[in-house]
Design a protein that fits this description.
Blueprint lengths: L41 H8 L9 E7 L19 H19 L11 E6 L7 H14 L7 E6 L6 H9 L4 E7 L3 H6 L6 H13 L4 E8 L6 H14 L3 E6 L7 H9 L10 H17 L2 E3 L4 E4 L7 H6 L4 E5 L4 E4 L2 E5 L3 H9 L5 E5 L3 H13 L3 E3 H8 L3 H4 L1 H9 L3 E3 L3 E4 L1 H5 L1 H4 L15
Parallel strand pairs: 1-2, 1-9, 2-3, 3-4, 4-5, 5-6
Antiparallel strand pairs: 6-8, 7-8, 10-11, 11-12, 13-15, 14-15
Helix pairs in contact: 2-3, 2-11, 3-4, 7-9
Length: about 450
Amino acid sequence: MTAEPISPAEPPKDIPADEETRAGNYFVSNYPPYAFWSKDRVDEANAAINRPPAPGNPLGIYVHIPFCRKRCHFCYFKVYTDKNSTEVESYLDAAVHELAIYAQKPFIGGRKPTFIYFGGGTPSYISSSQLTRLVDRMKALLPWDEAKEVAFECEPGTLTEGKLQAIKDLGVTRLSLGIENFNDEILLANGRAHASKEIGRAYDFARSIGFPQINIDLIAGMVGETEANWRDCVARTIEMQPDSVTIYQMEVPYNTTIFKEMKVFGQSSAPGVASWKTKRGWVEYAFAEFEKNGYTVASAYTAVKNTSPAPFLYRDLLWRGADMVGLGVASFSHVNGTHYQNDHEFESYCAKLGEGKLPLFRALTPNADERMIREFVLQMKLGSVRQAYFAEKFGVDVERRFEAPLSRLRDWGFLTIALDSLHLNRSGLMQVDKLLHEFFLPEHSQLPRA
């Protein structure tokens, strides 16, 4: 029997019009936006690092491993595919040195990390012995005995049974497999390094050795994606029964291979990438299928298996103002209310740490209103916001503070207001990154929308 086409509800006509997928960073990951961080405010980062922490605020560590076998055509992260073993070792030494400097700073205040996240790049690219040495040295500086979550990103083609066992032995509680798609032609067209045959092998062994949580990443609307293939990806993911699934809608940031090709050929939209309307429909279909098969939609991007305790502390604590130290080239940190980013060049990052200096590049300290907006827009991605949280933490009645944008979202049919909560329906959740701009201050609102 032929499957019915996926047809999401049409948005109201007064919402900013949908477009084909054009270049730009649409995903809202922080506030104020990174474009407003500046080099001349680095002193604010130093000041934050040298103050004691806010009482009770948890501490996290992010470790950026910027090495990959190939650069995906849609990747906009700081990654390298040309570093030799000596350069990799020098980088890992620099990251440990960075943590050693932080461990002596007042903002640590005797805290131990509550969560640790290894991102990339491809953390599973480096060898088992390199991973073990890195983690042992990190634990010697800030022990992990109070850590409630250790998350680790993987590319299936870099995983062997021995490496997976080594990763588990490090104490990893959340293993995230960057599958993205199950179709070899689509994986190849998008520059992915792994092939479909490597997916099942890696997943099956990871499951057999008992990781507490296995997450699968998918991307809706990759170059060459079709509705039939997307349905197959969803079905195969459900068959695997991961503890959680993360689905992103394909975007084309400016520093990607796809964008560079668009410039060469004078194209205004990304060839082969589905429209925003199509991508939302595909994610909406996926979430509906996951719900039929024992999952709960936990955010605009995640579905969690009902029988699995699968929290995501890295996300949940950051979105509530936790401190996080980002180790590595171009990494982002949030300490004592100040945002800052590391030097974004490999050589200068390592050189500064070789001189005993923190590699700080740019920073911004939001004011009280901006801090409140940051937590509000990020928590809206969960689909529900508790008004009491903002009244208790910030002394703000968010229903009154955001009366105009909330009214617009309600008129557009995306929002309901209950006794103490604001709720986005599924249609609103599927385009939350566009809707969040309604809550930005005017000086921060002139940015691309999905």
